Amino acid sequence: MKICIHELTKSNLSVSIERVLETIDYLKSNLCSDTLRFNIKLALWEIFTNYIVHGNEHSCREIVVLKLENDREIEITIISEGSDFDSEHLIGDLCPSVEQIGGRGLYIVQQICDMFLVEQRGKIAKMVFKKD
Amino acid sequence: MLINFLIKGEILHASFHSDLHFETSHQLETELTDFNLKDHVRKVTIDFSKVRFVDSSGISLLLKWIHPMTRKVEVELIHVSEPVQNILKICKLDQFATIRP
Where would I find the STAS domain in this sequence (chain B) (predicted)? Predict the structure, then answer.
């Protein structure tokens, strides 16, 4: 399934994420845990906010979200047609220290996904979540 | 107000009234700038019962507020949902504050 989001900004962030979540059948199932629901929302939220924060005029021209779902997992690929971000600098294996002000978003996404891949300076982000 | 404070004896009770994320963290930070921990306070409890969602901006705000406070007082986060607990633990907040469901 393909979802297109035009002109992502701070004001339509929540609505845009809800649009993607509504397409994931498993999230409507009683089998889905609160933690998995939360983690998928959080992962989308962190990637989208990166596009807004690092985009021109705090927006991203267009985002395409591809969703694949089978019996075992949910795979989400996000393709940005506008903004990117310095994914190499922002992703690390170590938890940022408590004194560090920012830079936790992609670390958190790495920890909550079963697979997380970022390519082309964040223009492509792919994440996989195993079903409960 | 997105956060309320109530002092009962030596305990300060704080409670959030919204989720903690990119859209609310700026206002919360402004509210917390005015926060001043009184000398007689020995313990701070922070109620998360109205917090359903936390992102990395919210975590940064919590760390910036809570970590320095733990040098003086015991800090306990209460009514924290399981998904939020998981994120707080990923960011090591459990190393200096108690987190309870």
Answer: 16-101
